[in-house]
Amino acid sequence: MSQINVGIIGFGTVGVGTVQLLLKNADAIAKRIGEPLVIRKIADLDTKTDRGVAVGKEVLTTNAMEVIDDPRIDVVVELVGGLDKAREFILMAMEKGKHVVTANKALLAEFGREIYCSAQAAGVHLGFEASVGGGIPILGALQGGLAANRIETLVGILNGTSNYILTGMTRNGLSYEKAVEQAVKLGFAEDPPTLDVEGTDAAHKLTILLSVITGIPIPFKDIYCEGIGSIGLDDIGFADNFGYRIKLLAIARQGDGWIEARVHPAMIPKDHILANVNEAYNAIYLEGDFVGANLYYGLGAGGRPTASAVVSDIMDVARKMLQGVKGPVFSPGKNMSPLQAMQIRPMEELTSIYYFRFSALDSPGVLSKIAGILGDHEISVSSVIQKGRKDKGAVPVVMLTHEALERNVFKAISLIDRLDIVTDKTVIIRVEEGFPNGNA
Amino acid sequence: MSQINVGIIGFGTVGVGTVQLLLKNADAIAKRIGEPLVIRKIADLDTKTDRGVAVGKEVLTTNAMEVIDDPRIDVVVELVGGLDKAREFILMAMEKGKHVVTANKALLAEFGREIYCSAQAAGVHLGFEASVGGGIPILGALQGGLAANRIETLVGILNGTSNYILTGMTRNGLSYEKAVEQAVKLGFAEDPPTLDVEGTDAAHKLTILLSVITGIPIPFKDIYCEGIGSIGLDDIGFADNFGYRIKLLAIARQGDGWIEARVHPAMIPKDHILANVNEAYNAIYLEGDFVGANLYYGLGAGGRPTASAVVSDIMDVARKMLQGVKGPVFSPGKNMSPLQAMQIRPMEELTSIYYFRFSALDSPGVLSKIAGILGDHEISVSSVIQKGRKDKGAVPVVMLTHEALERNVFKAISLIDRLDIVTDKTVIIRVEEGFPNGNA
Questions:
Q1: Chain B: residue whose CA lies nearest to A305
Q2: ipTM of this predicted complex?
Q3: For B147-170, how does the pLDDT look when each residue is reduced to its tens digit (9 = 90+)?
Q4: Chain B window 232-261: which residues touch A at a Cβ cutoff of 8 Å?
Q5: What distance in Å separates residue A351's CA from the closest CA in chain B?
Q6: How many Cβ pairs closer than 8 A exist between chain A and B?
Q7: Residue A281 phi, psi (nearest 5)
């Protein structure tokens, strides 16, 4: 073997970043793996637009099958995104014995089991570092330098767009709508940024992280997912009063015989290192039984950071090829068995601290009525703020609870929301104090 | 091969952590690599003390050669520390064809070239993740998920003890001496913590990081190293006034044809994510040409975090053995050549922003004399603070400069320190604003 031949399907932002990297750092890459990486074919429906990279015309094609069928190509890089086409390309490439590198988180979250098993069956390598956290090499860390640990807790800020929006609300006092508008204008969000603000993108990534941690693909649909759309500036302000910041968190926890997986906005102590991850940055905080608290931080999206992970994955595949290692060496597929299907604990069994913002009429007895219902459901209150009394209309009444059971919380709030004195749906935000402040 | 046999030399804190981990997570480890890891022999001069781990008597020996000579043992784990004995054990083990895992940063910094070359010559694997940053898998990240990048900047808080001391001074207003005392009392520092506070330990780790980044062992003695002993509470306070925190930093930078490597205390902007790494935590901040700003954070010492890295290294070696991969696949040794000896840029060619604290008599004309000498050396001042006028005696005069050349700075300060109006050696602290605030 005197070189490793690469074919790329999808020549958008990440595709262009990947080609730029392969060209710019070609010498160093060849030195690090022992042989050069050569781009043989790039497929994209648009082969006309000038991307500002020096790629010969003969390399470009509009037909993905020219990449998949090319017998010279060793590694197929799937960067088209989306589900159907991408899935088809990857499965066909694997069938032809080609190793695959992909950045496609939605695909791995939805069809992970099929794709991991196909790699296993075909004996090919599958690299997907770029699917989580952009350039942050978190999947490599979990499978490599952290592999000896039982990962007990993982808390991630995995979606740059929603973090950018929440940062704008917190730092600049922008309303949710204004913050979204700004994020779209500056290119940090799609218009509309539905998958991002609803938590779907973060849940996709959490699915993949969990598959790597447990060795068992978790069904994406089992992951509880709640977005940031109901967070108001009021909540940001009250959080600040209580010493918290609001972040969209992806949380996984495992104990003996149970596993938790959920994506939702949460309040975390201001001085926790995760609370200080702002703008479009991503971070993964985790606790292993031996390593203790660890944090990994970097840009979670964008052509260049994502290309960093894609090309590092290609290098990893290339090294294994050159060493004669048959794939996949270590992938979620390896330990999979239908018998091991992992049961995610239902959300109603969660215990947490809760923040409630009630919209209540400013009349006597309101507090006692609300507190009464909470008490009936074994929810005890640790702090109350009642602010901004108006002559008429609703005022916010804000409460923090002690640890309570989610099932009870939702029962109580649904009763409270039916009270005449309550004028709007109560905002509920979970408070995460359960992971030690690594930096107290 | 139906199991991987491990021998350990050194049964202190890290040795015990390693055995605890191998026992506690044995099932998961076996599942992850395909075969169990079995502890065959543990050598330590003290085989009597009960370490609270279930190890059979037949496993313990006072003779390290029983580990090195045991034909059953595949992987030798060196955890004795220090230079001479450790070096001897490792070289002998390699000669016998055994793979080696070590946490010994001093050894790799001082004798890295010899050890990397010996691994290469013997065709064995060498794992040393535990030598830098405790449980933080930074060496794996540099060789794996970041491998496609040119690492342009690396800034590390690599010594937990000095970080603990500086945190105590900053947060609790402790004097340097009190902070050291507390660190010793709470077990965060040896007594005296010379290697830590003088920067030697951080410089050892920076040497190893640079070897991995460049593929060429850097001579440890070429790395500039300055400790935290001259930092006073005054400096912590003035830094705060200017919007900075003081940290002991290990800094490496590379550009076209030049490389910088230095360990010294530095002021960094308070809102930089590195400024918020406190107590005994370590962090490595880096910038790659594609990945952008990344941060890795965790406990940099201690038996359990270090064991996390040691056992993950054993697992990595085990996987390679089971895959039939000959070692070393990727190590600083691979690209080494005397021709490539890397020249570290002399410190006098550094340009930086500087903080000066002069001890000057409170008499007319002091400021103009000092400023005059600075001006003669092309050092321009951006801020001045003169505080605490006393009836007689010296007052601190504090200045921040614009970018200046280190050579000029030391010339100017040596002239200033000879002035009659200057009563004590001027404190000089570099200010690092040159790495983008990843979290602005």
A1: B291
A2: 0.94
A3: 999 999 999 999 999 999 999 999
A4: none
A5: 27
A6: 211
A7: -75, 150
The CA distances from residue A124 to A319, A329, B249, in Å, are 13, 9, 43
Cβ pair A283, A157 in contact under 8 A: yes
CATH code of the domain in which B104 resides: 3.40.50.720
Residue A15 and residue A117 in one domain: yes
Which residues 290-309 on chain B approach chain A with CB closer than 8 angstroms?
290-299, 302, 304-305, 307-309
Task: State residue A369 phi and psi, 5-degree precision.
Answer: -65, -45
A115 lies in the same domain as A257: no
A48 and A123: one domain?
yes
**pTM of the entire predicted model:** 0.94
Report the residue from B149, B299, B323 with minimal CB separation from A325: B323
d(CA A400, CA A269) in angstroms, rounded, equals 14
Token code pair at residue B135: 């449980």
- Tally of domains within chain A: 3
Catalytic center residues of B: 205
Dist. CA A210–CA A232, nearest whole Å:
31
**CATH code of residue A274:** 3.30.360.10
Residue A339 pLDDT exceeds 60: no
Q: Which residues contact A147 (CB under 8 A, 6 or more apart)?
A: B29, B32, B312, B315, B316
Reading the block at residue B130, the tokens are 């535990």
Query: What confidence score (pLDDT) does residue A389 get?
Result: 65
Strands A75-78 and A99-102: parallel
Same domain as B161, residue B260: yes
Question: DSSP states of A334-347 as a string?
Answer: TT--GGG-PPBPPG
- Peptide bond preceding A192 in cis form (omega within 30 of 0): yes
Residue B345 neighbours by CB under 8 Å, 6+ apart: B258, B259, B260
Residues A270-310: pLDDT tens digits?
988 899 899 999 999 999 999 999 999 999 889 999 999 99
- Both A189 and A235 in one domain: the answer is yes
Task: Give the angle A261-B137-A110 at the CA atoms, nearest 5°.
Answer: 30
Residue A247's SS3 state is strand
Residue B330 corresponds to which amino acid? Answer: F
Rounded to 10°, the helix B176-185/B160-172 angle is: 120
Indicate which of A272, A294, A329 best probes the interface with B, i.e. most B CBs within 10 Å of its own CB.
A294
Query: Which among A129, A281, A294 is the nearest to B145, CB-wise?
Result: A129
Domain boundary (B271, B299, B327) is at B299
Has residue B440 been placed in a domain?
A: no
The span from the CA of A301 to the CA of A130, in Å, is 9
* 3-state class (DSSP) for residue A382: strand
Q: Are residues A48 and A184 in the same domain?
A: no
CATH number at residue A380: 3.30.70.260
- Among all chains, which residue has been given the structure tokens 């004798």? B111
Residue B438 has pLDDT above 70, yes or no: no
Asked whether the beta carbons of A43 and A67 are under 8 A apart, the reply is yes
Task: Please check whether residue B224 lies inside any domain of the structure.
Answer: yes
- How close B440 comes to chain A (CA, Å)? 8
Helix (H) or strand (E) holding A283, with range, is strand A281-288
Can you give the residue range of the structural domain that contains B259?
A: 140-299
- Same domain for B281 and B158, yes or no, is yes
Residue A386 lies in a domain: yes
Within 8 A by CB and 6+ apart from A34, the residues are A319, A322
Cβ B66 vs Cβ B33: under 8 Å: no
Domain boundary among A278, A311, A336: A336
Buried b (16+ CB within 10 A) or exposed e, A22-54: beebeeebbebbebbbbbbbbbbeeeeeebebe
Residue B315 located in a structural domain:
yes
Q: Are residues A102 and A121 in the same domain?
A: yes
